[in-house]
Amino acid sequence: MNMCTIVSEKINIKQHNIMNKFSTGILLVTALFFYYFSNGQDKDNDLLLFKCDSNFFINAKESIGYDSLFKKFNRLQISGNEQIRILQVGDSHIQADLLTCEIRRNFAKTFFNLTEPPAIAFPYGILKSNNPYAVSVICNGNWTGYSVAQKSQFSSLLGLTACSHDTCLSKIMIHVRTQEDSNASFSKLLVFCNDDSSHIALNTVIPSIHRIHIFNDSIFCHEFIYNCYTDSTTLFFKVFSDTFEFKLYGIIPFNDDPGIMYHTLGINGAKASLFNNTLLPSFIKYMHYDWVILSLGTNDCYLPAFDSISVSQSFQTLLASIRQDNPNIAILLTTPMSHYRKKNIINSNVISMKNIMLDIVTKNHAAVWDFYTVSGGETGMSQWNLGHLSAPDKLHLNTHGYQLQGDLFFDAFLNTYMENISKP
């Protein structure tokens, strides 16, 4: 039995205990202390030194939004009637969607399997970048793609922009993977773009009610409401003039059913400062998210010339802007784990990055998941690499590694959640 199986089984036991304890009003969970993996080595060498006593969200009790967030989870667990909206923003660790797919899977197992289809979707192939695991978007015709990690965009919605000048009829195909998520179907589709219907015709292949909402002076949201559930659809659009550039910022399949809407926004190479050039805070407000998770920091501290003051200011600006537009939202930062530069140079800046985050969350009434400590501290990546859980670059994890990280994240959520709702 490998380590990931053990972690998953223990979390399943913990989830089963929660379901049983809710019926009597008693909340109890057994913490995870030791994990083993089998790779032909002696058992003494198989121990991953996780700091499981640190596996919770630091500062959550003192943070804005967490009390109401956990009460909402409690109502969902008891009645199954709430909808909780979560957005996780990050870099390449998030773009691949392996980590977040595992988190969604754990939420589904615990909360009546009430999960919404994964999103946010974007045609990453236009950027010559990897598509997230859960949702694929394919566009025909001629497109140009931009990312804030490559080039800053004025009034960029989420840091991703796909542009087209084509005046012929074009299409955008959206497909949600159903292999890992039985609740992948959706009945609504939001399309964020720059048209006001006078420059472009936009329709979906599935019969729908079509509404247009104004996001701001230059960005519009097309809402398509279907009379059925589906896991895929196609958008048709036609630009009326070759002088008009159609800009696509993102597509969100969703529904209004009770459950957990867990959206992800990952951009390879992203730093906190890059999202300060976007309308992310306004988007969070527009979508009525209950919880925002910021999984940034790896690229901020990766280079040897680490400007801790500048990085701290970037995170401070990002959190302050989110809080300004969303004063009651729960915010969580997740620290990077230890990693290497060029496969053999340990990045000593990570501990400084962690300390910056700990300082910032206190000032901004947010919480932090100290994955750096939980995953093993400075030697964490070397241990995960020995356990065949990291990618060859020893900067990213492999599929099993991200699944384990997702299990550990959910364990931290459960620890914090139960401590909060069981308090007098």
Describe this structure in words.
The protein folds into 2 domains: 3-116 and 258-421, SGNH hydrolase (Rossmann fold); 124-254, Jelly Rolls (Sandwich). It is α+β, with helices and mostly antiparallel strands. The protein contains 11 helices and 20 strands. The strands form 5 sheets. The protein has a 6-stranded mixed β-sheet with strand order 3-20-17-16-4-15, sandwiched between helices. Strands 6-7-14-9-12-11 form a 6-stranded antiparallel β-sheet, with no helix packed on it. Residues 1-8 and 10-47 have low confidence and may be disordered. The relative contact order is 0.18. The two termini are 40 Å apart.
- Give the overall shape: globular
The mean pLDDT is 85
CATH T-level topology of the largest domain? Rossmann fold
The CATH superfamily of the largest domain turns out to be SGNH hydrolase
User: What is the C-level CATH assignment of the largest domain?
Assistant: Alpha Beta
In terms of quaternary structure, the protein is: single chain
The proportion of strand residues reads: 25-35%
- Rg computed from alpha carbons, rounded to a whole number of angstroms: 21 Å
Structural class: alpha+beta
